[in-house]
Amino acid sequence: MKPQRTTALYWTLTLIFAAFMLLAGIAEFLQNQEGQEIMRHLGYPLHVMRVIGLGKILGALAMLQTRFRTLKEWAYAGFTFNLLGACAARYAAHDGIVLIVSPLLFLAFMAFTYALWKKVARPAAERSPTLPLAVAA
Q1: What is the DSSP string of 57-88?
Q2: Which of 7, 53, 119, 130 is least surrounded, with the fewest CB atoms within 10 Å of its CB?
Q3: Are 86 and 103 a contacting pair, CB within 8 Å?
Q4: Mean per-residue pLDDT for 72-87?
Q5: SS3 string of 4-36?
Q6: Where is pLDDT greater, at 57 or 123?
Q7: Which residues, 6 or more positions from 61, have their beta carbon under 8 angstroms from its beta carbon?
Q8: How far apart are CA 8 and CA 131, in angstroms?
Q9: CB 24 within 8 A of CB 110
């Protein structure tokens, strides 16, 4: 795939994922009624919603910034922990297979954006098919 297409695909998919996480984070931070019912069902105290919501908001913003690579890595790691935790919580609550597996689908989607980011962020010299040969002195 051409670098321009890879970059466009990366930003398109990352924007979709970040928008989803941002909206979910806002809903959780504001402790909407549906989210409260889910948290009760999973056995979590309601104040955890604000922590998770704030983490999602900050993580989404970190994914969209281009200056601090380590911050972006931490955002990806945080979403990984969040989605794996959601899967485990749904399993522990004896929810149906769709509710247990759905966080893993989001995780796969996010992993694809991560792989694209690594490909896009690679220095141009590494991407070049004709690297200059070292000259022996």
Answers
A1: HHHHHHHH-SS-HHHHHHHHHHHHHHHHHHHH
A2: 130
A3: yes
A4: 97
A5: HHHHHHHHHHHHHHHHHHHHHHHHHHCCCHHHH
A6: 57
A7: 18, 22
A8: 25
A9: no
Is a pLDDT exceeding 60 seen at residue 42?
yes
Cβ–Cβ under 8 Å, residues 2 and 119: no
d(CA 10, CA 118) in angstroms, rounded, equals: 10
pTM value is 0.84
Give the residue from 4, 123, 117, 8 showing the smallest Cα distance to 65: 117
Q: What is the mean pLDDT of residues 10-26?
A: 96
CA end-to-end distance (rounded Å), the chain: 37
Q: Which of 59-68, 74-83, 99-108, 126-135 has the lowest mean pLDDT?
A: 126-135
Under 8 Å between Cβ of 42 and 89 = yes
95 DSSP 8-state letter: -
Q: Give the pLDDT of residue 2.
A: 87
Q: Which residues contact 79 (CB under 8 A, 6 or more apart)?
A: 21, 56, 59, 107, 110
